[in-house]
Structures are given as structure tokens and as C-alpha cells.
Specification:
Length: about 170
């Protein structure tokens, strides 16, 4: 029975880390799409408004690339480290993962309060400032924050399920 619980915890942990790595690859794909959009606005944009999107969309692509790299480089090594850490001290591993996932839940709760406020500020920017660059910044910010909320909602669901799994399998 203990071996089944160990395998279950290790599988859940590695599945969680693999899902985070996959999520980083999806964010990277979105960053590439933002880069392509910036290139499109640069090459094909004929209006002042279209040309105004080049820099905001390019910067958003860079930010998404940084998010992707952060997700990837923080979670890829965990896949191999989980088994070693669990075999070294299973109870300490589970305890540290429970603490880490609880901390992540608190951070994600804050994210879901801040990102909508940023979206509201960007919407107000679009409404009250008529300069093309500022409108492009507002629109791009809304797109970026919406995308980040989408990614973080999946991360939150995955983190919550993993946290609950750890709590139920706690030794």
C-alpha cells in the first residue's frame, strides 16, 4: 500500500511539473504569435493606428517570452528532482510541496485581483486618451493581461488539484 501511495505522489508531482512545462511551451507559442503580429503591423500597417501597434505588441511578445522561460526553467528541472527528493525523505518532500503549492495559491489569488485592475486601467486609457500609441498600448495590455489570466487560471486549477492530492495522500 505504501509503495502505491509513493508511486501515486511521484506520478502526481511529475505530471504537475510536466503540465507546467507544457504551459510554458504554449506561452512561448503565444509570444511567437505576438512577434508575428508586430512584424505584420510593421510591414503591412498603413495607418497611424496600425503602425502604433508595432512596439506595444513587440514588448508584449518579449514579456511573454520571459514568462515562458521562467515557467520552463523553474519546472523542467523539478521533473528529475522530484523522485530524488521523495526517495531521500518522502514526508519532507510532501510537506515542502504542500507549503509551496499553498504559497502559489496565495500568489495566484493576488494575480486574479491585480490583472483585472490593469485591464480596467488600460480600458480607461483607451477611452480617455485619443493618441494612437496610447490606444495601442491599452489594447495590447488588455490582450496580454487576458492571455495571462487564461494561463494563470489553468495554472491555478492545476495547482489546486495537486495541492488537494498532496493533502489527501499525506503520510
Amino acid at each position: 500500500m505504501k509503495i502505491m501511495i509513493e508511486m501515486d505522489i511521484l506520478k502526481a508531482s511529475t505530471d504537475w511539473a510536466k503540465a507546467e512545462v507544457f504551459s510554458s511551451k504554449m506561452v512561448l507559442l503565444f509570444s511567437v504569435l505576438f512577434f508575428l503580429a508586430a512584424f505584420g503591423f510593421w510591414q503591412l500597417g498603413k495607418t497611424t493606428m496600425a503602425k502604433a501597434f508595432v512596439w506595444p505588441v513587440l514588448v508584449s511578445g518579449l514579456l511573454l517570452m520571459a514568462v515562458s522561460a521562467g515557467l520552463y526553467f523553474s519546472n523542467k528541472p523539478r521533473i528529475a528532482q522530484f523522485e530524488t527528493a521523495y526517495n531521500k525523505d518522502g514526508k519532507a518532500f510532501v510537506k515542502s510541496e504542500i507549503e509551496r503549492t499553498a504559497k502559489s495559491q496565495n500568489e495566484l489569488a493576488m494575480v486574479f485581483k491585480v490583472l483585472p485592475l490593469i485591464i480596467i486601467a488600460a480600458a480607461l486609457l483607451i477611452i480617455f486618451i485619443s493618441m494612437p500609441l496610447w490606444r495601442a498600448i491599452g489594447i495590447t495590455t488588455i490582450a496580454l493581461m487576458t492571455l495571462l489570466m487564461f494561463v494563470d487560471s489553468n495554472t491555478d486549477a492545476r495547482n489546486t488539484a495537486y495541492h488537494q492530492h498532496l493533502l489527501t495522500k499525506k503520510q
